[in-house]
Amino acid sequence: MNAAIIRTAIITAAAVVTASAAHAQVIPLWSQGKVAFGVYAPSEAERGKPPVYTPDGAAKVAANPLYDYVFLNLEGAYDAAAVKAYGSGLKKTSAKTLIVRIPPISKDGADVTRARVKEILEAGADGVTIPHIRDIEEAKLALSFFTAAKADVWSPANPKGTKLAMLMLEDPKAIAQRAEIANLPGMSVLACGIGSLAQAIGGDRETARAGAEAGTQQVLIETKRVKIANMLTANAKDVETRVKEGFLALLMQGAQADEAIKIGRAAAGR
Asked: Are 170 and 211 in contact (CB under 8 A)?
């Protein structure tokens, strides 16, 4: 084999690796009904200071083989620079999926939210989470933002898609419309924001907690029915239960995240 042929083979192999890296790491797992485990992107700022996210910090997270995805939470304060910084650092060394949560439509309006979805996907993130979807009409509106961004969204109807569209239901009205929302095309992940739902239910703590858990399980039933993913936070105490219940995306946070993921991976046969 001459040098030119060898050089061509190397370039071809590199192209294949690059193409694979461009495919969100969680998609092959979810396509097989397997659980993906992730962490909230940790801020590098001192305690009490506004969050800071850098390429170097992202690279450290990317080096951890336990993580399938990283969840960059910008719901409280959107920061386009953070998306670019974290995306570049994360993608340099791994194909880990980057999902970015933004403020709800109700906070900054449809036009701003639409622009953010496009901006985030163009910056190299794999998916966008739109929280606090209030009803089916707002769910349709949220999904239209991905269409406007010309995103090739992964779903059972589009198994070759490469981007992720995630909606969160966090109040009783949206939970009541969960089946209709789950039926909407162009969605990858539908989740119940269990903490926010408990606050929306109100009343005494136990009643709110029980209602939020019931809502979470109701949304889980619908996501199983339409074969899309359902994301939920978990910890070392409950991750095994959540795996057995059928959540396909479990999200950890803090110093015990790795321990919880190890327990979850064992329970999931990974």
From this structure: no
> Using CA atoms, how far apart are residues 100 and 229, in angstroms rounded to an integer?
16
pLDDT per position as a tens digit, 182-229: 999 999 999 999 999 999 999 999 999 999 999 999 999 999 999 999
- Is 126:97 a contact under the CB 8 Å cutoff? yes
Domain 25-268 annotated CATH 3.20.20.60: yes
Cα→Cα distances 159→27, 30, 156, 163, 235, Å = 9, 10, 5, 11, 30
Q: Largest Cα–Cα distance in the chain? A: 76
- What one-character DSSP code corresponds to residue 37? E
| First-to-last C-alpha distance (Å) of the chain | 40
Q: Where are the domains of the chain?
A: 25-268
Q: How many residues does the chain have?
A: 270
Q: Are 69 and 96 a contacting pair, CB within 8 Å?
A: yes
For residues 176 and 179, what is the distance between their CA atoms, to the nearest angstrom? 8
Letter for the amino acid at 165? A
- CA 168/CA 264 separation, integer angstroms: 23
Cα 215–Cα 220–Cα 221 angle in degrees, nearest 5: 100
Distance CA 97, CA 99 (A): 6
Global confidence as pTM: 0.90
pLDDT tens digits, 77-117: 999 999 999 988 887 767 799 999 999 999 999 999 999 99
